[in-house]
Structures are given as structure tokens and as C-alpha cells.
């Protein structure tokens, strides 16, 4: 699991969202995409990172593959 994936999972769980709920909140129709991000299979786009930041209330630094919560 990537660092950003771990941060997404931790923030999602702390917020009480399921993967499907989070996908819906950020406008992604494929709920499995959240799982792929969390497992590090793919890295979220800059737009998706912005939406995750808005919904989860954390800052995710996609450029270096690191994640930092605020």
C-alpha cells in the first residue's frame, strides 16, 4: 500500500465513509477506484486529490507520492 493510499484509507475511515460513499461524494461512478487508490494500484489524479482534500478535510500531496493530513 502506498503512502498516499494509506492516508486516503485512514482519512476515509476516520470520516466514516465506505469506499462507495466516498466515491459518490467526490463524483466517481466506479467505487472500486477508491480501493485501487488505497492499495496503491493507481495514483489519484490531481483533480481527484483536490476532491478528496475537500471531502475528507486532509491535504494529500500527489506530486511526491506522499500524503500529509492537516
UniProtKB/TrEMBL annotation:
<dbReference type="Pfam" id="PF01381">
    <property type="entry name" value="HTH_3"/>
</dbReference>
<feature type="domain" description="HTH cro/C1-type">
    <location>
        <begin position="8"/>
        <end position="63"/>
    </location>
</feature>
<protein>
    <submittedName>
        <fullName>Helix-turn-helix domain-containing protein</fullName>
    </submittedName>
</protein>
<dbReference type="InterPro" id="IPR001387">
    <property type="entry name" value="Cro/C1-type_HTH"/>
</dbReference>
<dbReference type="InterPro" id="IPR010982">
    <property type="entry name" value="Lambda_DNA-bd_dom_sf"/>
</dbReference>
Amino acid at each position: 500500500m502506498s503512502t498516499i493510499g494509506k492516508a486516503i484509507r485512514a482519512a476515509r475511515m476516520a470520516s466514516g465513509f465506505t469506499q462507495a460513499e466516498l466515491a459518490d461524494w467526490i463524483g466517481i461512478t466506479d467505487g472500486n477506484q477508491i480501493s485501487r487508490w488505497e492499495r496503491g494500484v493507481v495514483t489519484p489524479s490531481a483533480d481527484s486529490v483536490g476532491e478528496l482534500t475537500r471531502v475528507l478535510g486532509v491535504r494529500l500531496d500527489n506530486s511526491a507520492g506522499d500524503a500529509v493530513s492537516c
